[in-house]
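Tutorial, part two.
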Amino acid sequence: MIKSFSFYYRYALLIIKKEASCFELLICMREKKKTLASVSSRPKIHSQEFVLGIDGGGTKTRAVIMDENFRVQGEGLSGPSNPLRVGVAQAASEIRHAVDRACHSASVHRSQLVAAEVGLAGVRRGDLRQRMREALTGLSIHQLEVVTDADIALFGATGGEQGLVVIAGTGSICCGMNRRGRKSCAGGWGPVAGDEGSGSWIARRALQAVARASDGRGLATELSEAACDYFKARTDDDLAIAIYAPHMTNDRIAGFAKFVIDAAEDGDKLARAIVCEAGRELGLAACAVIRKLQMERERFQVAYVGGVFTAGETILGHMRRQIKTLAPRVFTAPPKLSPAEAAARMAATHLPRLALAG
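Running the prediction step on this input gives:
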């Protein structure tokens, strides 16, 4: 009887252990299911979801679509989207065109865009940024932020670390951030009150030199012929009509800066003086930001963005020398990311629980 009882005891114990194991397995599966449900409720970039970055200025708009690993999947270009220049409705239209072209390039649908950062020139005022956000609701991107072009350029320049970025395209502005995260800007006043060192500023200074040369109030310059060619005028008198034509835009005038830079590199004294002054003006804007942020003794990067810098050392050299008179430890270098790519990365930061590579 004892043996028999012992045998059945062991058998019963085996059954109990098996049942306990099954019970534990069931509990484990239930807990795992709860965990998976919890994780699935978090925001997440799936393989078929993307972030969008926009860089909109006075000349063009660039859209970039990135995947979860920050690889660029598609790009799109359109016309100017500075709302101060073209109006809110036209700016929003150009942004939509750029987004649609980027989506076509990436073979994705707008519904797959989970976040967007829209960096625009001309939106320093909060009310204007709000109007642009409202105008872009048609994109149906739930997480969409509108910031200045300087914000995305600064992020792209320094990767979120302390440093400065000087932007010189159609207009100009300098923005910086110190190690404590404090930000400051100088410039960005537009063609009437500022934009020193920008394409429009260089072009206007050149046209003033042409006017003086034509009147005999100033030295003769190669810029006279270059201006007539660019603005399609036969004579200096025709030039005066061309630059004030109703269809003439600030962007079109700014485009003449390239020919001024070419003339400077070819040795024209007046053109060279204008370009040198442009570099110094950009350096002065950087110095103003450095003083505000108390970075004179720090070592940091000053990045540069915009079409004016295609002139290379012709502009950069004068800007760098001006900055080093105040902050000798700075160094100039291209940005780490383009403004549009920086905007796309900034868009991802608004989804804080995302596990993003890169």
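The chain has a mean pLDDT of 84. In part three we will examine how such features are distributed along the chain.
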